[in-house]
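tool_call: predict_structure(chain=1)
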Amino acid sequence: MGKLIYGSSNYLQGMIGLLPKGPAWELDESSLFYRLMQICADEFARIDLDIAQLVEESDPRTASATLSDWFDEWGIPDDCLKLLDDPTTEDYRKVLILKITTLGLTFEELVIAIGAYLGYDASVGDTDIHTVASTVDARLYDTSWLNTALIVSADETVVNLLTVDDRVSMALAEWGDELWECLITALAPAHNNVIFQYGSDEE
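tool_result:
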């Protein structure tokens, strides 16, 4: 919260100091005019606090009172956040900051920046066409994939295992990060299919 420079008592003493001199203006604290000045002093202090708070409200990283306005302006929650089971306000804020800070970047720059923000060392690559010289474990991409597929890689293997608190209808394990994949897919060029890879080559 912004620093409060002048409080109610400061404004009250300032107004009292501006009154004309003389016995008629030596006010009792129970008098109507004194109480009116107290009300004005309280309001001046409130305005001072609001002005100091404006600095924090202008930054989505620290905003509170205007945070819902920030969300509305940037279309949050979006379809990606709806994938989360129980998104919090901080989840919303994280995606908001991502949208703002990555505005204007190329797709490859977006992948790297968003990956770093979510804790991944990410990269973008093209498909390697399978030939007779390829290794036996190489993926079977043919030439039709050259202009339609992008490989987005993250350095960590993301595995969500079934726990005792999960429903019996759920899979025993799920691979991948839904939020990460949704954000990247939404930003990918329309003519490309995005293929996600997790884990380093050494794994």
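agent: The chain has three domains: 8-57, 62-78+85-101, 105-198. Proceeding to next step.
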